[in-house]
Design brief:
Blueprint lengths: L4 H13 L2 H8 L3 H15 L4 E3 L4 E3 L1 H29 L3 E6 L6 H10 L4 E6 L7 H4 L5 E5 L7 E9 L1 E6 L31 H9 L5 E4 H6 L5 E5 L6 E8 L5 H15 L2
Parallel strand pairs: 3-4, 3-5
Antiparallel strand pairs: 1-2, 5-10, 6-10, 7-8, 7-9
Amino acid sequence: MDLDLRKLRYFASVAELRHFGRAAEQLYIAQPVLSRQIKSLEQELGCTLLLRTTRSVELTTAGKQLYEEAQQLLPSIAAAVRRVHDVEQGVRRLAVAFSPGLHVSDAIRAFAALHPDVEIDVIPARWWEQDRPLRDGRAQVGYLRRPFDETGLRVVPIGHEPRVACIPAAHPLASRQQLTSADLDGERMLVTSKRRTMTLEEKFELIAAGRNIALIPLGVARSYSRPDLVYLPVTDTPPQETCLAVAADRREKLLRDFLEIATETLRHS
């Protein structure tokens, strides 16, 4: 059976938004057309992907698996098509992934000064799958924080970044200048490993609502300042290591040049 990539893209939009109307708007198609395409995909696969009610759309077990596959497959195909077009048009391109709160702009400027003919793209890397852009072909190099899956990757250490406690502004600890791990004993900590698809915005909303406290990298705190949150250093919490990562089998000169420049630039930034 051949999988229709258009239907897969339609399904991925519904699965992400959990709403047929909003997905149809995003895809610029009529909602009845979208519904028919999803139904056709389910018939072709021989399984139910979505559970529909008048007010919500939920993924079945099969739907969750297909959505996971689609998140890897669709970006990989889009990246492959772009590479084909680049070859046809003689474009040299470098795509750099970066974790939230990490700034790779200094390295890009230094590289572009020596390679002005190279097109440079930046790809946000989601915190729970930082290595994904390197594996699906969207990026050739990533500026990331450990830990992540390093299988098949070559990693160049860059430095260390402190973590801070993110606390609701009304919390009793918010008036302190700094904390220790002992100060957080008994507090309800937000364990993000149990909620893989939680965005940073969702995380901060939960914390601001007084539901949790979280330890986050300092760069993330600086990038997401808001008046209802306080960020405090935790003096005995180990920092996170920052690094550059590339696929172990990639040795192109363009990539080697960027790694050399970025390593020097980011270590001194």
